[in-house]
Structure formats: structure tokens, C-alpha cells
Design brief:
Layout lengths: L11 E6 L6 H9 L17 E7 L3 E7 L7 H13 L6 E7 L6 H12 L4 E6 L13 E2 L8 H9 L21 E4 L13 H13 L3 E4 L4 H7 L6 E4 L4 H7 L6 E3 H9 L2 H9 L9 E6 L10 H14 L4 E6 L12 E4 L7 H13 L4 E3 H8 L3 H5 L3 H10 L1
Parallel strand pairs: 1-3, 1-4, 4-5, 5-6, 7-8, 7-9, 9-10, 11-12, 11-13, 13-14
Antiparallel strand pairs: 2-3
Helix pairs in contact: 10-12
Length: 400
């Protein structure tokens, strides 16, 4: 990732769909001004989805996704098509690229309707409009990736699109300009060498942009930090694995939450995840638990997903539980086999995909919780770390 490039997980994902040779790859190249995607007259040139980051104003950081043709054929073609459809789970804005020389067939029209039924903003591009072509349907943007015709209008439409899954700000309603915030970031064997983990980086950046001073400490430095401040911090945000130690060192009246709680709020449905945590009390002997991580990484000796969370659940419930594990962008389709899904903090995927994963669990009638919310529950401070989040308190009051 380039040094000044926003992480993909906080960027709006704009996916380009269409038949083979409709000009999706050419359009990606034209929009970015670079020859990023391979362009050829041969059908099926694009195989796996290709991702390219770009900045569109006022929309902000975006990821353009080039996909294989939806009309690909044969065994490999079907696999490519499946990969293209998987992109839908992380799509914020869908662009359907039609070949203006041939128009839309019934399958394409049905697919566009499917996109709209998912409540996705859909932009229909009538590509190759510099050639002899059919009239563009109402609402379509006539474009030529070769000559640049219509590109300015397309960029304007995309820049002003409003993704359905636009994430709220990490600190919305929690911190005001001028507030002092204490960030607790343990440096231990699981911390990456020479850098902060992504959630910590993003919260720190959000505080800088807001104009709220941040004091960054390790847990054992909390007493000295509090003594040095003229007034108590407006909020304390901690790494979830230090919940127990931090809670002991802070006055009970001091607002406390975690990086993982903030990400659960910004990336998904925090109330649903809190309900998933409370469902832990109902687990029974023999229940299967799925522990799902969105990224892949080298697991260390005391890995949180593989080791710590199973240990905490066994200790908390006293039940004989069985654990399965999945990682990466794949997500099991057999959720109904499980009594609980425990998901990572989703720092490497966008809000659309995390909400899609939560919805899959909801449809399967399986409670889902994320790492940070689970840790708050097993350490007995879930209510405390949810207290600073206003909408969570409102929803829980309604359900009470």
C-alpha cells in the first residue's frame, strides 16, 4: 500500500460488473489514468477480481474492483463468475458496464435488478459509445473508455453517490474538539514490531483530525498519566486484551471503551454483537463455535483467535465446546451448524462485508459476536464499555 493511501477497509468499494469484453478493464484504466488492468480482445482476459485504490471527491478514498465477465463459460468460467459474485458482499457502489454495440440482454437486466434489490447504488455505463451503438437507456451514462467521452460525467456521478453502508465516524458522538482522550496500547509479544495495529492508527488519526489531544500509554503507565492531567480524560480507549487491567486502574466513573468496540460500531451492528455476547450464557455441552477472521496472519503461540478465545469461553461457560476456524475473505456457508460465531474486529474488511457476514448469521439464526465485545463480556465489563455509546444504550433500553 502506498504511504498516503487510505486502507481498503475504510474506502468505498466500487465494483464493475458486466459481460466479457464490455470494457470493464479499459474503463478502470481510463478512470485511474494508468494501465493497471490487462486489456485484450480475447474473451475472459480478467480472471480474478483486481483492486485499485483511487481518490474521488467528495466521496473520498475508494477501491475500484474489476471483475471477470458474468457470461464466462466452462468449468473455469463458472469459478471466475463465482469470484465476481463474491465481490458483491463488499460492494458499496455497483457499476454495470454494458457494451453499447450489443445492448443489454435479459440476463443482464435481471442482474441489474438484483443489484437494486440489494439496495446498492447502481450506475449503468453505456461503454464504447464512440462506435456505432444502440441508444443509451434512460439514466445510463454514455462513455468511451478509448476517447474519454463521458468520463467526467461518470466521475461526477460516482463522486456524489451515497453508499448504503457508509460507516459512521469512529468517534461520532463520543469525543468533541478539545477533549483529552487516553489511549491504552499494550506493547507485548502479539504487538507488531515498530508500529501500531490498524485500529489504533485509525483512532489516533481520527482524534488528530477532530482536534482532540491524545495521550498514548501502556496499562502500567495509566496512574502516572492520570496524575499528570489537570482534568480527567473525556474517554479512555483500550486494547480489548487489556480490559481487566485497565478497568482495575481506572475510577469506575471514568468512561471506558475499546478500539474493538469502536470498530464493531463503525463496521457492523454493535447491538447485534452485544446480543451475541450475551448468548454465551446459553451455550451447552457439545455446541460448536466458529471463530472467523477476515485476514490471514502467522499465528503466534498465544494467538487470540486460536488459543485465547477458546480458553476464555471454556472457562466462562464450564461447558465442553468444539471450535472450528476460518480466515481470509472466505466465509463458511454452513453457519446453521454453529451455536455461536465469534468474528475478529474486521479491521481489514469494509462495513459492507461485515454487515453481510452479520446478516448471514442472523438469517441462520446464529448469534454473532466479535473479539472485543466477547472479551468485554468474559471479563465482566460489557455494560461499562458500551455505556459511552449512545445508540447502544437507546436500543438496549427499548429491548429491556
Amino acid at each position: 500500500m502506498e504511504q498516503n493511501q487510505a486502507p481498503r477497509s475504510v474506502s468505498s468499494h466500487i465494483a464493475l460488473f458486466g459481460r466479457r469484453n464490455a470494457g470493464k478493464s479499459s474503463l478502470i484504466n481510463a478512470l485511474t489514468g494508468q494501465n493497471l488492468a490487462i486489456v485484450s480482445d480475447q474473451l475472459g482476459t480478467t480472471t480474478d477480481p483486481v483492486y485499485k485504490s483511487i481518490e474521488l471527491f467528495p466521496l473520498g478514498p475508494c477501491v475500484l474492483i474489476d471483475t471477470a465477465g458474468l457470461d464466462d463459460t466452462g468449468t473455469l468460467g463458472e469459478l471466475r463468475r463465482e469470484k465476481s459474485l463474491e465481490v458483491l458482499s463488499r460492494t458499496d457502489i455497483a457499476v454495470y458496464v454494458a457494451d453499447a454495440q450489443t445492448g443489454l440482454d435479459q440476463n443482464e437486466e435481471e442482474f441489474i435488478q438484483h443489484l437494486r434489490q440489494r439496495e446498492l447504488p447502481v450506475v449503468l455505463v453505456w461503454n464504447k459509445s464512440d462506435l456505432a451503438c444502440l441508444p443509451a437507456p434512460k439514466g445510463a451514462i454514455a462513455v468511451s473508455a478509448q476517447t474519454g467521452q463521458g468520463l467526467e460525467q461518470l466521475v461526477s456521478v460516482l463522486s456524489n453517490a451515497k453508499p448504503q453502508q457508509k460507516a459512521p465516524g469512529l468517534l461520532d458522538g463520543l469525543v468533541s474538539p478539545g477533549d483529552i482522550v487516553l489511549l491504552v496500547t499494550p506493547i507485548d509479544s502479539s504487538a507488531p514490531k515498530g508500529r501500531l495495529i490498524l485500529p489504533q492508527q485509525q483512532v489516533l488519526r481520527a482524534l488528530l483530525e477532530l482536534g482532540a489531544p491524545a495521550l498514548v500509554v501502556q496499562p502500567e503507565e495509566i496512574p502516572a498519566a492520570l496524575a499528570a492531567l489537570a482534568a480527567p480524560p473525556a474517554l479512555v480507549i483500550t486494547d480489548s486484551q487489556a480490559f481487566a487491567r485497565v478497568a482495575e486502574l481506572l475510577p469506575s466513573s471514568m468512561p471506558l471503551t475499546s478500539f474493538s468496540i469502536l470498530f464493531a460500531r463503525a463496521k457492523g451492528d454493535l447491538s447485534e454483537l452485544a446480543a451475541g455476547a450475551r448468548a454465551i450464557a446459553s451455550l451447552k455441552d457439545g455446541d460448536r463455535i466458529l471463530i472467523a477472521e477476515a485476514c490471514t496472519h502467522h499465528r503466534q503461540e498465544d494467538d487470540i483467535g486460536k488459543v485465547k478465545i477458546p480458553r476464555w469461553l471454556l472457562q466462562k461457560t464450564g461447558k465442553e465446546l468444539h471450535f472450528d476456524f476460518t480466515s481470509g475473505l472466505g466465509y463458511t456457508k454452513q453457519l446453521s451448524d454453529y451455536a455461536l460465531v465469534v468474528h475478529c474486529g474486521a479491521c481489514m474488511i469494509n462495513r459492507a462485508e461485515m454487515l453481510n457476514r452479520i446478516e448471514q448469521a442472523r438469517v441462520a439464526n446464529v448469534p454473532i459476536v466479535n473479539y472485543g465485545v466477547l472479551i468485554a463480556y468474559v471479563t465482566g465489563i460489557l455494560d461499562r464499555v458500551l455505556e459511552p455509546i449512545p445508540e447502544t444504550q437507546q436500543k438496549e433500553a427499548i429491548h429491556a
